[in-house]
Write a structure and sequence with these properties.
The chain is flat and about 75 Å long. It is mainly α. The chain is built from eleven helices and no strands. Among the domains are: about 90 residues, Di-heme elbow motif domain (Multiheme cytochrome fold, Orthogonal Bundle); about 35 residues, no CATH class.
């Protein structure tokens, strides 16, 4: 036993295990911090989406008092899927923020919304919206959701539900004319 403790391989293995434990702990902490809506809205280009959209939407303000946070919709469940999505989207956001045009008034929100919706899986919606045909639902809702269930994946939740998540935050953005006037007045 004493001979094993003196070998270089044993100490390298032990250091490797300790480094691994520290990295897993730091990764878990980073995932926790970056999953908070305050972190998501810490960049000014996303602040308007959160403060003027999400906070006024039914996913924040509702009779049940349930709040769907950014990761509930934008990050799929599972460790590998979570790590992949947070890494991919985090790097993209950093590139857009530093190299792109982060001015919310100049961003192509239609394109960004299309990209975001393409990444959101129905499973994210169904985690909270398990009962698609509840008592008291409107006829329109019942017909649409029964058709969704009948088609078994041919349609997506977001094919119909397009404005519920971030509300109508775009109404808060200046028009191109207002932006041009504001930029002109700064000169």
């Amino acid at each position: 036993m004493a001979k094993i403790l003196l070998t270089r391989g044993f100490w390298l293995f032990l250091v490797g295990v300790l480094v691994g434990i520290v990295l897993v702990g730091l990764s878990a902490r980073a995932i926790h911090i970056t999953s908070d809506p305050r972190f998501c809205m810490s960049c000014h280009e996303m602040r308007i989406v959160g403060e003027q959209g999400w906070m006024y939407s039914s996913h924040y303000q509702n009779a049940h008092g349930v709040v769907a946070e950014c990761t509930d919709c934008h990050v799929p469940p599972g460790v590998v899927a979570t790590l992949w999505t947070k890494t991919r989207d985090g790097l993209k956001d950093i590139v857009v923020h530093t190299l792109g045009n982060p001015n919310p008034a100049l961003m192509d929100w239609d394109h960004l919304a299309e990209q975001a919706r393409s990444k959101i899986r129905d499973e994210a919606c169904l985690r909270c919206h398990e009962n698609l045909t509840p008592k008291g639902a409107s006829i329109k809702q019942l017909i649409a959701h029964r058709e969704y269930l009948r088609l078994g994946g041919e349609k997506r939740c977001l094919d119909c539900h397009t404005e519920e998540f971030h509300g109508r935050f775009r109404e808060m953005l200046p028009t191109p004319e207002e932006l041009a006037a504001a930029l002109q007045s700064r000169r």
